[in-house]
Amino acid sequence: MEHSALPINVTVNGKAQAAEVEPRLLLVHFLRENLGLTGTHVGCDTSQCGACTVHVNGLAVKSCTMLAVQADGAEITTIEGMADGPVLHPVQTAFQEQHGLQCGYCTPGMVMTAAHLLETNPDPDDDAIKHALEGNLCRCTGYVNIVKAIRWAAEQMRGQHASS
After folding, report:
1. Residue 44 and which of 113, 115, 160, 164 are 20 to 30 A apart at CA?
2. In angstroms, how far apart are the furthest CA atoms of the chain?
3. Which CATH number, 3.65.10.10, 3.40.50.300, 3.10.450.10, 3.10.20.30, labels domain 6-81?
4. Tell me: the pLDDT tens digits for 121-137?
5. Phi, psi of 50 (to 5 degrees)
6. What is the pLDDT of residue 1?
7. Which CATH class is domain 90-163?
């Protein structure tokens, strides 16, 4: 049985994108293969690791759990769209400054999840940060510096620290 391609129109990192995609194409593969946005990582293909997290209409979504056709009409932000030109998003800066990454494979998903958390809760305590990260796995860092980085980013975003 042959599946015909379906048209989709999405806005990715502020840029309108039109494409014809196979009905079974996952959003993560559309972003990586069709658009070349390889910062969104494929970690497990089972929605367990969170490495593929992106923002879809402002919500943190594991892009391996969503079909590209389901994103038709959506606004999508990937890790590549987080910086403002050469200026990193505060969460990206925090991961760098507070050593919240080691191998970096989980980092895009962690950053996307953390940014969504801080948009919805600008002053999370450590328990709220840990709860938000429950769907993201890191095999290297032990999470201590990831939590520290997110707390630091929250402080920066609230204007509590001029520098670390």
Report:
1. 115
2. 60
3. 3.10.20.30
4. 999 999 999 999 999 99
5. 80, 0
6. 56
7. mainly alpha
